[in-house]
C-alpha cells in the first residue's frame, strides 16, 4: 500500500512540505517558516509593547499646561472677586439694618426724653389737670406701641444673578 501524500505547498518557501496553518493569517507554513513567522509576530508584539511603554511614560510625565494653569488662575480670580462682591453686599445690607435700627431707637429715645421733660415740668410746677394727664398718658401709650411695633424689615433676593456665572467649555477634537 502506498503512503498518502500529506504535503502541501508552503506559503514562504513555495515547496511541498508538511505544513501548519496559521490561524491569524490563514496561510500554511512548513515548520521552519512557521517558526520564522512566529518570530516576526513576536517582534511586532515587542514593537507595540515598546511604543505603548514610551507613550505611557510621556503620558505619566504630563503636567498641566500653561494654558491649563492660566484657566485655573482665571477661576481663582473669579472666585476671589465673587467672594469680595458678596462680602461687600452683605456688609452694605448689615449697615442698612443697623443704621435704620439706630435711627428708630434714637427717635424713640428722643420721644421718651421729650415726654420725660414734660412729666418733670408738670411734676415740678404742680400745675396740671385731667387734660394734661390724659395727654401724658396718651403719649406714653403711643411711644410704647411704637417701640413694640418696630419697623418690619425683610430681605429681598433678586432673581437676577448678582455674580457672573462661570463655566468650563470642553472642546473635543
UniProtKB/TrEMBL annotation:
Superkingdom of the organism of origin: Eukaryota
Protein name (Swiss-Prot/TrEMBL): B box-type domain-containing protein
Amino acid at each position: 500500500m502506498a503512503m498518502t501524500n500529506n504535503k502541501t505547498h508552503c506559503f514562504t518557501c513555495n515547496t511541498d512540505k508538511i505544513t501548519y496553518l496559521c490561524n491569524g493569517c490563514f496561510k500554511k507554513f512548513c515548520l521552519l517558516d512557521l517558526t520564522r513567522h512566529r518570530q516576526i509576530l513576536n517582534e511586532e508584539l515587542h514593537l507595540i509593547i515598546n511604543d505603548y511603554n514610551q507613550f505611557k511614560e510621556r503620558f505619566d510625565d504630563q503636567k498641566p499646561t500653561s494654558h491649563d494653569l492660566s484657566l485655573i488662575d482665571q477661576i481663582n480670580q473669579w472666585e476671589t472677586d465673587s467672594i469680595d462682591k458678596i462680602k461687600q453686599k452683605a456688609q452694605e445690607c448689615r449697615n442698612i439694618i443697623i443704621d435704620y435700627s439706630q435711627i428708630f431707637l434714637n427717635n424713640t429715645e428722643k420721644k421718651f426724653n421729650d415726654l420725660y421733660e414734660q412729666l418733670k415740668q408738670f411734676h415740678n410746677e404742680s400745675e396740671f389737670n385731667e387734660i394734661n394727664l390724659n395727654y401724658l398718658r396718651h403719649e406714653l401709650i403711643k411711644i410704647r406701641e411704637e417701640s413694640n411695633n418696630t419697623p418690619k424689615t425683610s430681605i429681598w433676593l433678586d432673581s437676577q444673578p448678582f455674580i457672573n456665572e462661570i463655566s468650563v467649555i470642553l472642546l473635543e477634537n
